[in-house]
Amino acid sequence: MSGAGAAGRAPVAGGAPAVEAAEPVERLEAHRSELTGYCYRMLGSAFEAEDAVQETMVRAWRSYERFEGRASLRSWLYRIATNVCLDLLKGSQRRARPMDLASPSSVDSPIGTGLPEAAWIGPIPDQRVLASAGDPAETAVARESIRLAFISALQRLAPRQRAVLILREVLSWSASEVAELLGSSVASVNSALQRARATLAASGDGAAEAPAQPLDDAQQALLRRYVDAFERFDMDALTAVLHEDSTLSMPPYALWLRGRADILKWLLGPGGGCEGSHLVPVRANGRAGFGQYRADGKPWALQVIETADGRVTALQSFLDTERLFPLFGLPPRYEGPTGISSASAS
């Protein structure tokens, strides 16, 4: 935390170094990852989430001496983070995926000029929001709760309902804990949770899928086949790995395709510039992903891949490489081949 870290090293009154301030900074920083995950679920943007957490840390640091300890430090930080997110969400347009906005496009549809960044749900690196070690069941729930489809479903909820559902169903807070955080009643929290569940059920986009598991040998093999087929631009090999009803989306463009046949047709037509691409593995939103570089080594897209039943079911390509590649630690140009096992396994 740059701001609080600097404050922690500032001299105290009388000129003595504030060595004792290092402990509060460390205590606050210990919660950064989980707070980033919470704010990302609330806001749908990795960049807004990081800004919200930074603001949370700054507010917490400035108020730390007045923290009385009647609630846990974690609860206090979540209260601050919730207020920051609710402020950011006032009057804002809900973020979405292309498939949330319109029916599938045809291969011949014009790609359009693209919508502003604030219109879209964006990807986030796993390492920013998921603990490197912990209970396997909790880790599986955490992975599923940053899945792009679930983040999209959350955006359908009113902000306070969103906070209630995340705190109750993702983070397993009790109704009384959530009521205290929101300055509300248990009855109000339970009512908000009931309405939130009904909205998600009606949307059909909740966390209905089985929680994502660490990649097994079969899934690793599928990803290797996908990388090989895509890099060789082998349509027969891609046919074998893509699900018949797979989808392709490309924010910031609203155009999206459904169906293996249309995706392959698009790759052989408007998407022909993908030929010769190189894929560098990352982990995004609890799933396998790739930094896609064109044949000339220039960044083209951040891919997030969904799989089911031994096939690739979604290719979600985010084209804002200027911001996304640094976020995911990807180099500005392709620097040579790399394997997929270490980065895509978890």
UniProtKB/TrEMBL annotation:
Keywords: DNA-directed RNA polymerase, Sigma factor, Transcription, Transcription regulation. One of its GO terms (biological process) is DNA-templated transcription initiation. Residues 29-94 form the RNA polymerase sigma-70 region domain. GO terms for cellular component: DNA-directed RNA polymerase complex. Signal peptide: none annotated. Residues 148-200 form the RNA polymerase sigma factor 70 region 4 type domain. This is DNA-directed RNA polymerase sigma-70 factor. The lineage of its organism: Bacteria, Bacillati, Actinomycetota, Actinomycetes, Kitasatosporales.
